[in-house]
Specification:
Number of helices: 6
Radius of gyration: 23 Å
Largest sheet: 7 strands, antiparallel
Strand order of the largest sheet: 7-13-12-11-8-10-9
Order of helices and strands: EHEEHHEEEEHEHEEHEEE
Number of strands: 13
Number of domains: 2
Length: 245
């Protein structure tokens, strides 16, 4: 059973670049480089994001320049053999870019969704990553409900105070089982799930799959598919990067 989790603001820059074993001379050289966003962490032997993120130069502009300066100070042989890693930069419009360091090279990558290589994620974290007022949901659901409550779901969706009152809800009730089809409906996924479990009688009758995204500016790494079976749920996201680190 999931628990309610508040939507949190994304950091503009996250991740680290692992350097492996470095000489004392190189460690001193890296430690002397003054970055607004990045710094060398001797205890981890890695380039990391500073704990206090600045409010000056945007990460999308400053981080690549700082990363190149750090990497340029490392001798070629050591740069090619270091483990590497990735930095994820998200600007204020929620666009996402990944800076991947691997094999001594720096690659700039933009996300693209690949559902054939989906990745399971914690359902609570996935549900919390989408603003409920801008959430967009499509999918199919079936559940047994008492006849006097058959219309409760559509009434709940109609009353939901989302920012994008769009989409279609089609319901069919055969006297016992309620079949629901959602298409681009603006309703909070967590709130919808709570309502469905409240209506399902018995709870084990609840069965469905929902595709969750957002009407607002939104990064591809937040979209997910939620499978619901009674009291259990499973969330998967598409793979968004060509290489994994």
């Amino acid at each position: 059973m999931i628990a309610a989790v508040s939507v949190h603001a994304e950091l503009e820059c996250e991740g680290e670049i692992r350097l492996g074993t470095v000489s004392r001379e190189l460690a001193e050289r890296l430690g002397a480089i003054s970055g607004e966003w990045l710094e060398f962490a001797p205890d981890k032997s890695a380039l990391v994001v500073r704990h206090v993120q600045p409010g000056g130069e945007p990460a999308l502009i400053a981080v690549p320049a700082e990363l190149i300066a750090f990497l340029d100070s490392i001798p070629p042989a050591e740069r090619e053999s270091m483990p590497g890693g990735a930095l994820f930069i998200r600007d204020r419009a929620h666009r996402l870019v990944r800076l991947l360091v691997f094999g001594g090279e720096l690659r700039v990558q933009w996300p693209r969704q690949d559902w054939t290589h989906s990745i399971e994620v914690a359902a609570g974290r996935a549900l919390a990553s989408v603003d409920p007022l801008a959430a967009r949901i499509s999918g199919r659901i079936r559940l047994s409900v008492r006849p006097e409550r058959a219309s409760s779901l559509t009434e709940f969706i109609d009353r939901f105070e989302g920012l994008y009152p769009e989409g279609d809800v089609v319901t069919v009730f055969d006297g016992e089982v309620l079949s629901v089809e959602l298409k681009d409906v603006n309703v909070g996924p967590f709130e919808l799930l709570v309502k469905l479990r409240e209506l399902a009688s018995p709870l084990e009758s609840l069965d469905g799959e929902l595709e969750v995204s957002s009407f607002a500016h939104h990064s591809a790494d937040h979209d997910f598919c939620l499978t619901v079976r009674g009291a259990e749920e499973k969330a998967v996201r598409p793979s968004v990067w060509k290489e994994q680190v």
